[in-house]
Write a structure and sequence with these properties.
Two copies of one chain form a homodimer.
Chain A: H1 6-16, H2 23-35, H3 38-54, E1 56-57, E2 64-65, H4 71-74, E3 79-86, H5 89-98, E4 103-107, H6 126-133, E5 139-142, H7 148-160, E6 167-170, H8 186-194, H9 199-206
Parallel strand pairs in A: 3-4, 3-5, 5-6
Antiparallel strand pairs in A: 1-2
Helix pairs in contact in A: 1-2
Chain lengths: 207, 207
C-alpha cells in the first residue's frame, strides 16, 4: 500500500504490530482516529502510556496491580486460605468474571515448556511454594489449560508442595454446560464418565 | 469483566471505542502492549498523537497530507489534466496500490445522501468545479461506489460540470478478472454485455 502521508504510514505500521491486526484493519483504525477530535485521541494515547508506565505486579500473586498488593490480595472479603494457580492475567480476569470464586490467585506467568526452553525457574513457582509454607494457605486449586505443558506444570507444582500441609485440587474437567454429548471429543466424554460427580454437585452448578 | 487494575480498565475501554474491537480483543491488545518495553509503547502512542495533531488536508484535492499540498498534487510526474473523483481517502490508497493511475484525485469526503441529510454542500463538489474551471483539467474520472448515493452524486457532478470543457468518464463496470460468470449477479452480467468493450481494451488489462 502506498500512503499519501508519512504520518499515516507511521501510525499504520505501529498498529500493524498489534496481534491480529493486518494492514487493512490498521488503516481502518488510523482513519477512524483521524476523524475523532484531538482530545479523545490524546485520551486514547495517554491511557496506553500511563497503563504501561504505571502498572505494577502484585508482590504476593504476580497479578497486575495499581499498587504493591493487588486489589484481590488486599481484600479482607476474600478467602486467604484458598489459592488458585493460573497461567496468565487473562485467566484471572476470566475467573473473576464468573463471580464464583472468592479466594486468592497465583499467576505463574507461563507454563513449563521444555520445547520452548521454559524451565521451572522461568515461571513463578518458587514464590508459590513460599506462600504455601507460611501456614495460611490450606488449598491450592490448579486452573491451567489441559495441554502437555499445563499438565507438566501441575505435576511439578504438586511434587514441590507435597511435603506441605496443603490440599491440591484441580478445576473440574468434563462436558461444558450447553455442550451436546454427540459432539464432545472422546477423551473428555470417556473421562467425564470415569470421573463422574455426585448429583448434589451437579445441582450446585444449576443454581 | 472485572479488571484487577484501573489502569488496565481505562486502556481497555479506550481500545473498545475503535471500530470492530470488542472487549476481549481490546484486552488482548492491552495485555500485548503491557508485555512490550516502555519505549515501543511510547512510540506507538506518539505516532497516533502526532498523526492526529499534524495531519493536514491537501488544499487542492482534500487528500490527507503532511504539507499544504499532498505529495500527489505536488508531483510533476503525475498527469495534472486527469482528476479521479473518489469518496474517501481509503479509495485513494486502494487506487494508488494498483500503480495503474498517474493522474490526480479529488476526495469528496462523502456522497450525497438525502436519507442521511447529506446534501451537495456537505461534500467537496464546489471545489471540484473550481478546479475544473481553470482549464488545466481535461478529464474527470468518476470512481464512486455503485450505490444509489454514489450514482446520485455522479449525476449531480456531471450536471455541475456540463458547461465546462471537461470530459466526464467512469471507471469500467463489469465482471471482475477471476470472477466466474455463473456466480455474477444478473445486473452486472446483463450490463457487461450491453456495455461490452473492444478486444484491444481487454488485452490492455491482461498485460
Amino acid at each position: 500500500m502506498n500512503f499519501p502521508s508519512k504520518l499515516i504510514e507511521q501510525a499504520v505500521s505501529e498498529f500493524e504490530k498489534l496481534p491480529g491486526i493486518g494492514k487493512k484493519t490498521a488503516l481502518r483504525l488510523v482513519l477512524h482516529l483521524l476523524k475523532q477530535d484531538k482530545e479523545s485521541v490524546e485520551l486514547f494515547s495517554d491511557s496506553i502510556v500511563r497503563m504501561r508506565s504505571l502498572i505494577r505486579f502484585c508482590r504476593n500473586c504476580h497479578n497486575i496491580s495499581d499498587n504493591e498488593l493487588c486489589s484481590i490480595c488486599e481484600s479482607l472479603k476474600r478467602n486467604h486460605s484458598l489459592v488458585c494457580v493460573v497461567e496468565s492475567i487473562r485467566d484471572v480476569i476470566a475467573i473473576e468474571s464468573t463471580n464464583q470464586y472468592h479466594g486468592l490467585y497465583h499467576v505463574l506467568g507461563g507454563v513449563i515448556s521444555p520445547l520452548e526452553g521454559i524451565g521451572p525457574e522461568e515461571v513463578n513457582i518458587e514464590s508459590l511454594a513460599v506462600r504455601c509454607s507460611n501456614g495460611d494457605v490450606k488449598e491450592v486449586i490448579m486452573a491451567l489449560n489441559p495441554t502437555i505443558e499445563g499438565d507438566t506444570t501441575i505435576f511439578y507444582i504438586s511434587k514441590k508442595l507435597q511435603s506441605l500441609p496443603v490440599k491440591i485440587t484441580s478445576i473440574a474437567r468434563g462436558i461444558s454446560f450447553g455442550g451436546e454429548l454427540e459432539y464432545v471429543d472422546d477423551i473428555t466424554l470417556g473421562r467425564s464418565i470415569a470421573t463422574r460427580m455426585p448429583y448434589e454437585n451437579y445441582l450446585v452448578h444449576r443454581e
